User: Fold this.
Amino acid sequence: MSVDIETQASTDPAAEDSSARRAPAVLARFAAPIGLQVLAFVVAIAVSLLLVAALGYDVGAVLAAVVDGAFGSAHAVSSSLTQAAPLVLTATAVWLAYQVGLFNVGGDGQLQVGGLAALVVALALGDLPGVLTIAVAVVAAVLGGAAWAAVAGLLRAYRGANEVISTIMLNFVAATAISLLIAGPLRSPSAKYTPRTDRVAADAQLGDAVPGIPLTFLVALALGVVTVVAVRRTSIGLRLRTIGLNREAATHAGLRVQAMQWQAFAVSGGLAGLAGGLVILGYRYYIAPGWVPAWGLLGIVIAFLALESPGLIPLWAVVLGIIGAAGPAIKGAASVPDAITTVMQGLPVVVVFLVGALARSGPGRRLHAALSRKPE
Amino acid sequence: MSAGQDGLDVRGVSKAYGSTLANQEIDLQVAPGTVHVLLGENGAGKSTLVNLINGREAPDAGEIRFAGALVAAPGHTRPNPAIATVHQDLALVPVMTGLENIALALRRRPDRALRRAATEIQDRLGTGVDLDRPVEELELPQRQRIELVKALVAQPRLLVLDEPTTFLPPAETGPFLELVRRLAADGLAVLMITHRLDEAQAVADSATVLRHGRVVARHAGPQLPSNAELAAQIVGTAVPEPTRPRAEFGPEVLRLAHVSAVESGRTVLDDVELSLRAGEILGLAGVDGNGQLELLEVIAGLRRCSGRIELHGEPVQHLPLRKRAGRGLHYVSGDRRRAGIVPTLTIAEHFEVVLGRAPRDLDALLRAADVRPPDPRVRADGLSGGNQQKLMMARAFQRSPAVLLVSYPTQGLDVLAAAQLRQVLIERADTGIAIVVASGDLDELLGICDAVAVMNGGRVAGIQRRPFDRDELSSWYTTRQELVA
Assistant:
């Protein structure tokens, strides 16, 4: 993928603007008009249901299970939003790094390191009052994720190492290191067969703020909003965007390009790390093999759907959160393999990308134009 | 001036891009054995016309024929193999040899037959470029010869030259124009595009002047009107060309001692010594790529160097660009798109990025700098090249520079905008700012500078102060001389 990015940037003489926005230029193609995104969502649902029907399952039962799983009760809403919370943060993380022209593919690794940091701190401080434990654990999660991302950010800023490659590799390192830790030093004495850690004490767990609305979602939403507003409305944000839009011009303007790039990348990792911390404190409470799905990758998907209108990040996070949370429900109610939910999460992007590609090659141009038109 | 059935015949051609009328009802004929010069400033529609003649694009109206055969008409293009074009930016693959490049362009193999054909043409042109050396090892004039051979091997009957002398040193221009004359004498029809009036005078049998996409004047040669008259036709009004009055200089503000720089093993700057006083304008001349840009980048802090750079008597060579800017040393690159503007940001944001916030009297400031439109909310990509350049200048001046470095400030600007920009530099120097300006246009430098240094192979081949001796300056472009101060 990185090869694509480089060649795209250097061989596209037609696009004056895209030459300025260099590294992840090709990714900007994901930035889809809102009409197209809605269409993508509808198509994704339709194709998924066709798939369900083709496999011989009861479409009605699946639909009912999804609706019930999403809206059936306060608990159902809460569990959807619980899944949406980390997505808001990982998507915001990718969006932020993109503003300085970098592509953070390391959300998964940063999230896991953040989760690990929160867990270790929460277990170590078990005797303290819950609120205090939570506060320290949250800070630890942010710092953990930030440190993990800073490795890639520093390598990129000062040594030119491609951050896509290094963050992917750091994802593997994080996942493997955590596997080793939970099988060894962090293994709970009570884990009989599969290795897992101890649980976070009950008073250090985050619950719902009001029934149906988990605290973790509110925290994630608040930080996502703060991040976007800071980038869009402050002077520092303007400098970050300048770096992403035209690195050379930023250098000539005297901005501390390298420092700002790695620092923004570290903050990006901090957001992903916080996602991991919230998962531990408000959802999983301990680490076992497979404790998190690929929320980092889903964050990339959301970030590029919402690239030009970051206000869509929470919306997409909630939608994908609902679909994700519906997995067990449809498995239980209609005995459909819950892998179908992963299909439903991935399809919108495929649709957006397909229509985008068609729009460049002719047949889809009119459709794309129609969907791009701003309502005025 | 009829081309008859044999030459190029452009009749009533119009072409629009969006709402921009790039060409409007253009008539133009080029007969075999003659050189026709197409004059006009940037954006006058010259390149559009070249693309139509090449059969790359179809006109909206009118038609283009060559030797009677239709080349382009609305909805129809048929590139004519008898038409060859040498583009301004040379289209050669650096790592391939001259012969391989020629073969690539013609979709032939670099075999003996091709070599014989190319050598024959070289003999005819009186050039002797080594066809077996990688193009990247050749000097620019030699590369251009390769381009020319490439075009001629296809045995064209019309040769289109798009600003062919842009990258040639002054000393090479004369011989090149003679070569063009010789090609015409052999029966070739030549259409040469240029904005240098002296060249037009030297080479043209006839000329057409374009302005805003329209033909505003036709001249049958061999005697064209005076340069002043041609310039007035090109621009539409007489261009007041600023000249540098005698100036009083302040104390020394910038000094370079033994400044050298290396880039991937190659010496790009070699023991440069310079001194600049407040209020002085120093020009960096020379064939492009001989260290002018590198020198400005070294002074600005964008590039490492050895040696010593003193600003107000204090060494700054170890400081990053940001800190040098803090001490009043600023650099405005002429490569606006790459290193100047951020297309999607507004004018106000361009100021905010470096100043922390936009100046309160920004509207007045923009009007004073003649940025059009003077609206802080306009995005940079909504400005013309000249206005983008004025914006970058205005931003630099807003930071009260003691020393201003400028590279190729008028590159890509039309005649009027370029003259305005030169005027700005002169006026600012009079307020005590020391200015170093690199330009590929020697005449531009002679007009505004107090001293001109010629760069050659990373060295300062020579420095002259007013009054300038143009011939001596030109001689430094190609030969190496000891420092003359």
